[in-house]
Design goal:
Layout (H helix, E strand, L loop, with lengths): L6 E4 L5 H12 L11 H12 L6 E7 L2 E9 L13 E9 L8 H15 L4 E7 L3 H9 L3 E9 L2 E9 L2
Parallel strand pairs: 4-5
Antiparallel strand pairs: 1-2, 2-3, 3-4, 5-7, 6-7
Length: about 170
C-alpha cells in the first residue's frame, strides 16, 4: 500500500483527453484476448466512455500531480439501459495505470463512486465486468459486490452484472 493515498476527485475538463488515453492504454492488455479485430471497437468504447459521450461523471485519481486512474460514474438519472434497475447507479471504464496497481487506487475510486451512489440515493451500485478482468472481479467481490447474472457478450467475451446494495 502506498504511503500517500491518491486524491480522487471529479476531473477538470482539460483532463478528460489525458484520462481517456490512459484508460485506453490500460484496457489494451485485453487486446489479444478478445475476438480478433475487435480491439479498435473496445478501445473506441473506452475513449468515448471516459470522454463522457454517453453522460456520467469522470472521476480521476491523482498522485504527485499526475493522473494514475479513472472511472466514469453514472447516477440513476443518467442510465437509459434495460440492463440496470432504474434506481441504480453504475461504474464504467475503471482503470489504473499498470505501474500504480495494487496500491489501493482502484479501491479509492470505487469507494468514491459508492459514496456518490449513496448520496444519489441509489438502491444498487452496479458494474458490468468482463470474465477476462480477473483482478477487477476480485476487487469488486472483496468490496461486497455480488455477481447477479450474465450481462451480455461484448467483444467475444462474457460480461457479468455485479451489484452492491446501498444501505
Amino acid at each position: 500500500m502506498r504511503v500517500n493515498q491518491p486524491i480522487v476527485r471529479h476531473a477538470y475538463l482539460e483532463e478528460h483527453e489525458v484520462a481517456a488515453t490512459i484508460a485506453a492504454q490500460c484496457y489494451q492488455q485485453f487486446q489479444n484476448q478478445i475476438a480478433p479485430g475487435l480491439w479498435p471497437v473496445m478501445k473506441n468504447w473506452v475513449i468515448e466512455t471516459t470522454n463522457l459521450k454517453n453522460g456520467g461523471e469522470l472521476l480521476i485519481a491523482s498522485s504527485s500531480q499526475c493522473i494514475v486512474g479513472s472511472a466514469v460514474y453514472y447516477p440513476p438519472s443518467c442510465l437509459n439501459s434495460s440492463f440496470f434497475p432504474s434506481d441504480s447507479s453504475y461504474i464504467a471504464a475503471l482503470s489504473v495505470i499498470p505501474d500504480e496497481r495494487r496500491n489501493g487506487i482502484a479501491s479509492a475510486i470505487l469507494k468514491a463512486c459508492r459514496e456518490l451512489a449513496k448520496s444519489d440515493k441509489s438502491a444498487l451500485f452496479c458494474a458490468s465486468i468482463s470474465s477476462l478482468m480477473t483482478e477487477a472481479i476480485a476487487l469488486f467481490l472483496d468490496y461486497g459486490f455480488q455477481r447477479r447474472s450474465k450481462f451480455q457478450r461484448l467483444y467475444g467475451v462474457e460480461y457479468n452484472l455485479y451489484t452492491h446494495e446501498i444501505l
